[in-house]
Amino acid sequence: MKCLMFASIFPPINGGSAVVYEGLCQFSPKDSVHVLAPWRHYVTGEEIEGWREYDAKAGFPITRIELLRAPVVSSRSLPQSLWLHLAVDLPLKLRVLWTAVKLVRKEKIDCVCICELNSGTWLGLALRRLLGIPFIIYIHGEEITTESSYRIFGRRRRHYLHWADALVAVSQFTSRQLIDLYGIAREKITLIINGVDVSYFRPGPTDPALIERYGLTGKRIILTVGRLVERKGIDMTLRALPSILERVPNAHYLIVGTGEFEPELRRLVEDLSLTPHVTFTGRIPVTELVAHYRLCDLFVMPNRELDNHDTEGFGLVFLEANACAKAVIAGVAGGAVEAVRHGETGLSVDGTRVPAIAAAIVDLLTDDAKREAMGQRGLEVAQQCKSADRAPVFHALCARVAKTRRRRWW
Ligand SMILES: Nc1nc2c(ncn2[C@@H]2O[C@H](COP(=O)(O)OP(=O)(O)O[C@H]3O[C@H](CO)[C@@H](O)[C@H](O)[C@@H]3O)[C@@H](O)[C@H]2O)c(=O)[nH]1
Predict the structure, then answer these.
(1) Cβ contact 182:144 at 8 Å
(2) pLDDT at 66
(3) CA gap 141, 118 in Å, rounded
(4) pLDDT attached to residue 353
(5) Residue 36 carries which DSSP code?
(6) Which listed residue, of 145, 212, 275, 401, carries a Cα 20 to 30 Å from 395's Cα?
(7) How far is the CA of 43 from the centre of ligand 1 (A)?
(8) Which residues pair with 340 in a beta bridge?
(9) Do domains 3-195+387-402 and 208-383 have the same CATH topology?
(10) Pocket (CB within 6 angstroms of ligand 1)
(11) What is the mean pLDDT of residues 146-153?
């Protein structure tokens, strides 16, 4: 059995879904997955830095393609989008389809996994129509909860979900949204709750070179890792920082990652006169990620649901921090309530309330015993959520779905 994984967000690009797909590929049986991914970034359209080196070392086959850029469709008015679709996206899609058809034949593909509902389902539908190959859609959360700017795209999403042969949900929350918002039958959903690579994310000493790089000697470090988008609650942590500093004067907020919300966050840091207490690291290489988690006293991401219902599908970063024996603070929104066991592996707070966030951070920063006990419990829990255990479940699903393949006479 061999699965073609069509992923518009795949390493070396950062992002939760990319990490999940990489884990599935790494831990699946050899030659059971073939990845089809773009060599351009899905937002900027620029060539992805280091993709050739990544592919050479990946240990599983990857075919790179030129793919449509999501903003071409989403950031413009509807007539403009339709015109761009015909002039730009359609020729690109035909080329991708041609590559996929050749791959399916050459690699003897039995099923397709669509990794991005909104931008990828067309390929699953086309391959099923042409070659009779069934397809699965992998669902994280925000792509089904966030309201689309155009009603037509919202409706299309519903059709995509119903047309798929099977769906994967990364959390109970995501599974519930599929059922409640889209009327998907429970039997159609396979739950593969996100796991963490515990062979990489594990406790260890702090790296003095990193302390020196950021000038953090003697600081109590609060850390957030993630794409800098509004729902992650970094803005609220910044608003909480002045009152945290009153109780913990040597607190320092280290923010790892890049994203569209960064200019807003930097403005907030200036407006609140927090420059000496906050460091933006920008994008850091994967090789340095674990060292950043080890650096912190406390991991914080008080995520919240935005007005357009954009919310966290799970919150992989909480597991990563826990796997390094760090206590975490999360928001009570989306799937984060499953990723964090309140009072056990960390604290869950109302991410819309600055005083609640400040109180939780001060509580854990000033109580070493409590914080360390939560970190230890977090480590135990993370060790039971290994990403390596997810691959066999995914493989079994692919095998089951592949049996429904309909042979075409051509
Ligand atoms: N190396 C590196 N990794 C980064 C960086 N920034 C984020 N990451 C990694 O990217 C992943 C999480 O990215 P997020 O931005 O926090 O998540 P997301 O893309 O919103 O992820 C979505 O899918 C996840 C997987 O199912 C969900 O867990 C998450 O809630 C959300 O729905 C984590 O593995 C994190 O370590 C960076 O600068 N450098």
Answers:
(1) yes
(2) 84
(3) 12
(4) 98
(5) E
(6) 145
(7) 16
(8) none
(9) yes
(10) 14-17, 19-20, 140-142, 170, 194, 225-227, 256-257, 283-286, 289, 312-317, 320
(11) 69
Amino acid at 168: V
The CATH T-level fold of domain 208-383 is Rossmann fold (3.40.50)
Tell me what pLDDT residue 71 has: 47
250-276 residue pLDDT tens:
999 999 999 999 999 999 999 999 999
The full set of domain ranges for the chain reads: 3-195+387-402, 208-383
Determine which helix (DSSP H) or strand (DSSP E) holds 220, and give its type and residue range.
strand 220-225
Rounded to a whole number of angstroms, the CA Rg of the chain reads: 22
Confidence of residue 383 (pLDDT cuts 50, 70, 90): very high
Q: Tell me which of 3.10.129.10, 3.40.50.11030, 2.40.37.10, 3.40.50.2000 is the CATH number of domain 3-195+387-402.
A: 3.40.50.2000
Residue 124: both structure tokens together: 């699953």
- Using CA atoms, how far residue 165 sits from 121, 138, 190, 303, 404, in Å, is 11, 11, 11, 32, 9
- First-residue to last-residue Cα distance in the chain: 21
Q: Could you tell me the sign of the dihedral formed by the alpha carbons of 203, 208, 214, 220, in that order? A: positive
* CA of 165 relative to ligand 1 center, distance in Å: 27
If you write DSSP's letter for every residue of 116-164 in order, what string do you get? -HHHHHHHHHHHHHHH---EEEEE-SHHHHSPPSSHHHHHHHHHHHHHS
